[in-house]
Hints:
The protein is mainly alpha-helical. It has one domain (8-447). It is built from 17 helices and no strands. It has helices spanning 2-40, 44-68, 71-79, 84-111, 123-138, 140-155, 160-182, 192-216, 218-225, 234-266, 270-307, 310-337, 339-346, 350-365, 367-382, 387-411, 416-441. Helix 2 (44-68) runs parallel beside helix 11 (270-307) and helix 14 (350-365) runs parallel beside helix 17. It is globular and about 60 Å long. The relative contact order is 0.13.
Amino acid sequence: MNIFYKYKDQYKKSLRLAAPVMLSQVGIASVQLFDNAMVGKLGALPLAAVSFGGTIFFLVFIFVTGISMALTPLVGEQYVQGKFRVVASYFQNSLVLYTIIGILAFMLQYALIPFMYYLGQPAEVVDMAIPYYKYIVWSIIPHMVFLSFKQFLEGIGNTTVNMVIIISTNLINIFFNWLLIYGNWGGPKMDAAGAGLATLISRICAPIFAITYFMYKERVRRYFRYFKRENFKWYYNISLLKVGAPIASQMLMEGSAFALTSIMVGWIGTVAIAANQIALAISNFAFMVVLGLSVATTIRISHEYGRKDFKELKKVANASWHLSLAWNTFTALMFIIFRTHMARIFNSDPEVIRLASHLMLFVAAFQFSDGLQSIFVGILRGIQDVNKVMVIAFFSYIVINLPVGYLCAFIFGWGASGLWVGFIFGLSIASILLIIRFTNKYGCLVRA
């Protein structure tokens, strides 16, 4: 109780900033849940197709999203020092840089289509996944444009606007899912491909809404006045990439563990793919709250880092992991108690429900380590200590997670459950190493 009163103000500040981000992230996860629930009503095959197509898309998508996250701490540090022209210069350069990266990512993802048949998945799953995949591949370009606005706003401490935009586009996504998956209101019945087109439409809307806000709100429109041709400098782009590339690599390592595990699940069968997708969707939904807290932690840490107020920085760090542990305790209990009920939301196949509810036990088991690793990643990003995080991610997810999962699933014969054992090992090691990195580099911060 003494700890609560000691950090009560920090909890309030973090939650006030994190709440819009949490709602935004939960909104994003809700769309995934609705996508899976709506497509899942068509059967195990369409759900497996969306799972596979989304997995292939996810690897490149998460990497370029990670690159964009450099803008938040870089802007945050300069913003609290009153260097608004520098802030605007970062923003201006990011708009061009991230758009180019989005175009390159689109070209790469489209080129992967012929190789989708060589990943050991059932042919009928790949056949249905490709139309869905083609639509979501196009969405990465408007998504990267929107991320410039999103990460910039987070850097200056404005998380509410992003929440409104994301929730609005999520509602658009859900509506077009309903329209295009089932052919309601006279719309074309596109099945799984309809979910992909709905995603594309919603992601086109996001940058349009962001630009509209910037044009009509003076306090952010003023940054456009600082835009000048001479602001295009290699320094800003190199800084964005220098910080962004390790973040992207760390996210890719972690994302690869989930994506490649999903591909290995495909070697087991269609039922396993569908069950794994359900467990992932539910897990991601809960993780979005921690991710929102992690983003808020990065923002607050970057501001205190810019002010060089390390005493306050210590308090922010401690409050964040306290909140994470509280949330993950709750989610772990919910996953254990309601695992079968959750699985039934997505599918009516008894075999899919049985396996999905069993996998939820493994999801519950790694809640604490998953939450801690996310928070400490957010702390280290806030002080731009990102290179070691990338190394830790490689060791935890590539060297440990994937081999352990393969060993348990296919050598020990534990099937899909064995692959999730790999997550428990990988996430636990990542959280331990990140905490060690934090304490070794910054003294007794966690005990302050």
